[in-house]
Amino acid sequence: MNEETTRYLVTLVVNGVVREAAVPARRLLSDFLRHDLGLTGTHVGCEHGVCGACTVLLDGEPVRSCLTFAVTVDGHEVTTVEGLAGDGELSPVQRAFTECHGLQCGFCTPGFLCAVTAFLRDNPAPTEEEALEAVSGNLCRCTGYQNIVKAVHRAAEIQAETQGRPEDRGGRA
Predict the structure, then answer these.
(1) What is the pTM of this model?
(2) pLDDT of residue 88
(3) Which residues, including other chains, have CB under 8 Å from residue 1's CB and lie 6 or more apart?
(4) Domains of the chain: residue spans and CATH
(5) In the Cβ-directed half-sphere of 146, how many Cα atoms lie within 13 Å?
(6) 10 Å Cβ neighbour count for 101?
(7) Smallest Cα–Cα separation from 14: which of 45, 52, 57?
(8) Which residues contact 154 (CB under 8 A, 6 or more apart)?
(9) Could you read off the pLDDT tens digit of each residue along the chain, which spans 173 residues?
(10) Which residues lie closer than 8 Å to 42 by C-beta, 6 or more apart?
(11) What does each C-alpha distance from 50 to 47, 54, 64, 71, 140 come to in angstroms?
């Protein structure tokens, strides 16, 4: 068997669900998510890790799925843009991008949403410079970034507002 026909079983948790598929060794995580699992929210732009459109969360950390082989994530947890919302409710980051018009064509948006979600988990009250730095690894050709940065700050506000509510901590209202 050659490298093209040899397949490896990859089992991981994607958006809270155990998923598996047999893939070639060189299958990219972006292709695995889109083609093998049918999760097309992850977009592929440059295929060189530069644009950030393919950003997903691997064990909670943002990674470029176009640079990551699927076989290397076996046994790990991946969150895609489809997994950010909970129980049909938009996440604070998704809500903020909507409220602040932080998207236009939407192609880059899934990568921004994943990257900003991880950023705000680690820095819940960013300065203007920190917010700008956080989104600088993702390219957008439509927005000029002003509303994206506004959305980062608005998401931080939404998260701060909801932290005190029991239903947002998994408890009862």
Answers:
(1) 0.90
(2) 83
(3) none
(4) 7-83 (3.10.20.30), 92-165 (1.10.150.120)
(5) 1
(6) 13
(7) 57
(8) 96, 99, 100
(9) 555 689 999 999 999 999 999 999 999 999 999 999 999 999 999 889 899 999 999 999 999 999 999 999 999 999 999 999 988 899 999 999 999 999 989 999 999 999 999 999 999 999 999 999 999 999 999 888 999 999 999 999 999 998 865 554 444 33
(10) 30, 33, 34, 54, 56, 65, 80, 81, 110
(11) 8, 10, 9, 22, 11
**Amino acid at position 48, single letter:** H
Cα distances (angstroms) measured from residue 116 to each of 20, 46, 97 = 27, 20, 10
Alpha carbons within 13 A on the beta-carbon side of 133? 8
